[in-house]
Write a structure and sequence with these properties.
Layout (H helix, E strand, L loop, with lengths): L1 H33 L8 E6 L1 H5 L1 H13 L6 E4 L29 H8 L3 E5 L12 H21 L3 E5 L15 H17 L3 E3 L2 H14 L14 H15 L9 H5 L3 H25 L12 H16 L4
Helix pairs in contact: 3-8, 3-10, 10-11
């Protein structure tokens, strides 16, 4: 009886030790995943469509990083391109027939070869369903594009690839029951597939969806995107919030971007400088690497843009973070 009791206690102790060991391994692993390799990632590239090109969430992320890591100075490079897809699909009369949707793979080689990033954030899907009801063929084109892009980035030697599910679609009439039901499936697939493949993934879609659902319950007129597609400042902050929670889990998160800036004049100045610099640099990088999308501003020459970048970096340094 005594031996049996001792054996039981021993098994419980071993079980507890195993659970603690498993918890430790998971905690350390999570810390390694979430701790951004800033020293290695001197060029941090953002690939995406018009939401990325708008640049607010990129500038917000960079601003919070610089305020928390003032001695680290990687480049945050916005290479989002409006209208772009990874599926290679386009509506028959896109842009009133002026041009088909550009495909990332038409410019990807130039982007990677000329920028040579160590870290790449990827956010596609919003345009890939072509704003039509769900179709299995379109879905396969999107999935194939994602899988091919992962391979291409890995083959290029990108050290860290961070996938993001597409933001929520806020249909002006149907709200969450229109095209967003297509994006629900795209986001669910990407998140599940990334987990199975051990890819690094940040879910933007469903946190934004829940936020929008809550807002609509309180106020039926509540919106994240006036046109259904392009989020305003709040939407960009919701994107930033998920990125920051993933990369800097101990960073204090406020409910809105303005709440983050309130009573922090230096951070507000920092964001103004970073957003201005990002606005200049994104057109320069798109012009330098090349693309087939008409109607965009031509960026200033890279050499001139780099001088502007360095000058603004001095202003940022003088803020004294």
């Amino acid at each position: 009886m005594l031996n049996q009791l001792l054996t039981t206690k021993k098994m419980r102790a071993l079980s507890l030790l195993f659970c603690l060991s498993l918890w430790y391994i998971q905690a350390v692993g999570q810390k390694q995943v979430n701790q951004f390799a800033w020293n290695e990632g001197q060029k941090i590239l953002f690939l995406g469509n018009s939401i990325t090109y708008a640049g607010q969430y990129v500038a917000m992320t960079e601003s919070l990083f610089l305020s928390s890591h003032p001695k680290k100075k990687p480049q945050f490079i916005n290479s989002g391109l409006p209208s772009e897809t990874v599926s290679g699909l386009s509506e028959p009369n896109h842009a009133d027939g002026k041009f088909p949707r550009p495909c990332l793979f038409d410019r990807l080689d130039n982007v990677l070869d000329k920028i040579n990033p160590e870290v790449v954030f990827v956010c596609y899907g919003m345009n890939d369903g072509i704003y039509l009801p769900f179709d299995s063929a379109r879905f396969e084109a999107y999935k194939n594009g994602i899988i091919h892009l992962q391979k291409r980035l890995a083959d290029q030697g990108v050290k860290r690839i961070i996938w993001m599910t597409p933001p929520v679609h806020d249909d002006p009439q149907l709200r969450l029951n229109g095209y967003n039901t297509v994006l629900d499936r795209y986001a669910q697939w990407l998140f599940s597939y990334a987990k199975k493949q051990s890819w690094e993934i940040i879910d933007l879609h469903f946190p934004m969806r829940r936020y929008l659902e809550t807002g609509i319950k309180k106020d039926p007129q509540f919106r994240l995107a006036a046109d259904g597609v392009h989020p305003g400042e709040l939407g960009h902050w919701l994107i930033t919030r998920e990125i920051v929670k993933h990369l800097m889990p101990n960073f204090p998160i406020e409910s809105t971007w303005d709440d983050n800036l309130r009573d922090k004049p230096k951070l507000r100045q920092l964001y103004t400088l970073v957003l201005k610099r990002q606005t200049i640099m994104k057109d320069t990088w798109l012009t330098f690497t090349g693309h087939k999308r008409p109607g965009l501003s031509k960026g200033i020459p890279l050499e001139d843009a780099r001088k502007t970048y360095d000058t603004m970096q001095e202003e940022i340094n003088n803020l004294g973070f």
